[in-house]
Hints:
The protein is mainly alpha-helical. Helix 2 (about 25-40) packs antiparallel against helix 3, helix 9 (about 130-145) runs parallel beside helix 11 (about 170-180) and helix 11 (about 170-180) runs antiparallel to helix 12 (about 180-195). The protein is globular, with a radius of gyration of 18 Å. It has 13 helices and no strands. Residues about 230-235 have low confidence and may be disordered.
Amino acid sequence: VRYWSDWDFAGAEREFRRAVELDPENGRGWYYLSNLLSATLGRHAEGLAAARRAVQLDSIQWGSLSLGIRVAAGEADVVLDSLAAVVRAHPDDERTLGMLCGTAYSAGRYASALQCHRQLEARAGRPRERLPASSSSEGVMLAATGHRAEAEAILRELMSASENDYVAPDYIAAIYAHLGDRDRAFEWLERAYRGRSAWLVYLNTLRLWDPLRADPRFGTLLDKVGLRPPAEGGSR
Length: 236
């Protein structure tokens, strides 16, 4: 609650550290600590150390989740090369292909992510199920790779869905950002802020928001959420 809802990052760090102090074998605690330190606060060296401890305790549960920590910490090329090698060696391994897609997206390699997404759809023999999160990701990939009309069609679908069901405002903001409409992007990010969207804790490091970083409104939003620019070099 302190982390994703209250945005009390100092309080969350104290609680996560206390959890792993009381139980050093608590993989979940180490993973959440790594997520806070690296993906939210940009303290990548500390975050990577905590992530490695989580993976040591349970590589199956925390291995794939920790990929995002490594991407945030600037290890995208190493991670992508490793996953691509596994996919080449085991072309039927859809789980790893899905991890490759997600990692490429997180790293801002949208052309590669879109190609990977199409591969998964082709294997399924039909378009993959469209939930708001996946629709937003596809809209971003399309917008970022010049498929504007298709991205705008997905945006209209999400806007329509938001009239009757909950759609996280930052899902819509992300597509606007990659379509180059900063005003609408910040309008929807403000809605996300007012609704305390949990995903805003990753504003510092997600490549998703790179099109907005130079705008003074982005710095204002970081201040409102309680974030500061990362102290170390990373994916940015």
